[in-house]
UniProtKB/TrEMBL annotation:
Keywords: ATP-binding, Nucleotide-binding, Transport
Keyword Nucleotide-binding: yes
Gene Ontology biological process: D-alanine transmembrane transport; L-alanine transport; L-isoleucine import across plasma membrane; L-valine import across plasma membrane
Nucleotide-binding in keyword set: yes
Superkingdom of source: Bacteria
InterPro entries from the UniProt entry: AAA+_ATPase, ABC_AA/LPS_Transport, ABC_transporter-like_ATP-bd, ABC_transporter-like_CS, BCA_ABC_TP_C, P-loop_NTPase
Molecular-function annotations in GO: ATP binding; ATP hydrolysis activity; L-isoleucine transmembrane transporter activity; L-phenylalanine transmembrane transporter activity; L-valine transmembrane transporter activity
Pfam families to which the protein is assigned, alphabetical: ABC_tran, BCA_ABC_TP_C
Source organism of this protein record: Bradyrhizobium archetypum
Family stated for the protein in its record: Belongs to the ABC transporter superfamily.
Protein name per Swiss-Prot or TrEMBL: ABC transporter ATP-binding protein
ABC transporter domain segment(s): 8-249
Function noted in UniProt: Involved in beta-(1-->2)glucan export. Transmembrane domains (TMD) form a pore in the inner membrane and the ATP-binding domain (NBD) is responsible for energy generation.
Length: 263
């Protein structure tokens, strides 16, 4: 069996703020088609780690190799251009534009064209936007103003926008924040299906353990900036240190789901 190529390799990543070691010598790899969750209690260092991968924050030390390129010091847009799609905790769409136009803007931006709703570039992007919207189950909403969308639909639109630059890697910072439990599972199921079909690697942070344990192939656990566990959901669930941290937070994965009852 062939092994999927490594998309992202992080080696000894560290960042401090004054005396606070937000991220301490974190190392891990992510392969094509793999769904990797980054979890940890509040203040564990997840966002700091994410922002360094995004190019929004500069590490004190360590290496980040993304699709074969060293990305430390590169700006977010340069990293996006390498083939990294992103979704954010707070959705960033244009509310007065239609759903389709929002995806068109992303497509045209990826092609480095000037956005013009009626030009030939827009005509091309129009068809491609429709394809992406169908992929995330939003085809029927294409002509609606984005501002009218329910929150869950907005998140699916955001996924279509993130897919517009044909990413090899998707970075999702709390993709299901603010969603109802059922919507969370559906969004991650959709993301996982698309990622596996298109061999896109996904790294996501998440507080909802049901989402994490149902959808992640592998889980990284941060605590006080350090990686304290890494492995399959089964391995992480059985890890004493992880259980101690999450029991302390009242967030331990519910035993009801162990036999797959929560799927
Ligand atoms: N800009 C900053 N200045 C000072 N301290 C910071 C800054 N950003 C993060 N920190 C500190 O670094 C540590 C890690 O924070 P970070 O936001 O990365 O954690 P997190 O795991 O994302 O937490 P949460 O789940 O609450 O979002 C915390 O102690 C936080 O207070």
């Amino acid at each position: 069996m062939s092994v999927a190529p490594t998309l992202l390799s992080v080696d000894g990543l560290s960042k401090s703020y004054g005396g606070v070691h937000a991220v301490r010598s974190v190392s891990f790899e992510l392969r094509a088609g793999e769904i990797l969750a980054l979890i940890g209690p509040n203040g564990a260092g997840k966002s700091t780690c994410f922002d360094m991968l995004n190019g929004q924050n500069m590490p004190d030390s360590g290496r980040i190799t993304l699709l074969g390129e060293d990305t430390v010091g590169r700006k977010p847009r340069a990293i996006w251009r390498l083939g990294v799609g992103r979704t954010f905790q707070i959705t960033a769409t244009f509310p007065t534009m239609t759903v389709r136009e929002n995806v068109q803007v992303a497509l045209v931006s990826y092609g480095r064209q000037l956005f013009n709703l009626w030009g030939s570039t827009a005509a091309y992007a129009r068809g491609e936007a429709g394809r992406l919207l169908d992929l995330v189950g939003m085809g029927a909403y294409a002509e609606r103003p984005c501002g009218e969308l329910a929150y869950g639909d907005l998140k699916r639109l955001e996924l279509a926008i993130a897919l517009a630059n044909q990413p090899r890697l998707l970075l999702m910072d709390e993709p299901t924040a603010g969603m109802a439990p059922r919507e969370r599972i559906e969004l991650m199921r959709l993301t996982a299906r698309i990622a596996r079909e298109q061999s896109i690697g996904v790294l996501f942070t998440e507080h909802d353990m049901d989402v994490v344990f149902e959808h992640a192939d592998r889980i990284l656990v941060l605590n006080r900036g350090s990686l304290i566990a890494e492995g399959s959901p089964e391995e992480v669930r059985g890890n004493r240190e992880v259980r101690a941290i999450y029991l302390g937070e009242g967030l331990v994965y519910d035993a009801r789901h162990r036999e797959g009852a929560g799927a």
